Amino acid sequence: MQKRLLTFSLILNVILILTGGTLAFKFKEKLHQYLFPPASNNILLVGDSLLAQENWALLLGRNDITNLAYGGAITLYILKNVEVLSPKIKPKICVIEGGVNDLLAGVPEQRVFENYTKMIHTLQKQQIKPIINAVIYTNFPEINHQITILNQQLASFCQQNQLVYVDTNQVLSEKESLKNQYSLDGIHLKQAAYPLWANELSSAIKKLDH
């Protein structure tokens, strides 16, 4: 299993180098499932390239993860994925991440928040437990201000509704900005950021995986 995971990571890195990342994000999940299909679909991941570009089976040390995140996703499209695919996959837990692409495209943070709440309600109707990941800060102050407002809304909503909220910014960001040692281009993450994120996410999953 470990050798197959490492082989996959090497193949993905080659694709990233050759294509600049676009095809890697597009075909990552198909390649992942071909090399080592999940034993079950207990955990569903939905989001954008931040979630898509790493191997969460390896990071979290479990083989029951289905990753449907992809590069360029906005929360409206993530919502559609949740509505269409979660009934088919029937996971126990769904991790939701996204929002930065919306804000970069000029979508108001209130609309992003509304898309999040729709995803949460959709999952709850199917008896799927949601985990809400905070929108990760960038290196762009004007976007980070919006991220702060959005994360405050998400954290408050989760607290009021007793939902699990993962504030990855506690380990990846400082003073409302992504730390330089974890920033690849101001938005995407360096590989060193993912074990820290995975540690936070693993703790959240353990709260619900029983």
Automatic annotation (TrEMBL):
Pfam families: Lipase_GDSL_2 (PF13472). Residues 55-194 form the SGNH hydrolase-type esterase domain. Transmembrane segments: none annotated. InterPro entries: Ester_Hydrolysis_Enzymes, SGNH_hydro, SGNH_hydro_sf. This is GDSL-type esterase/lipase family protein.
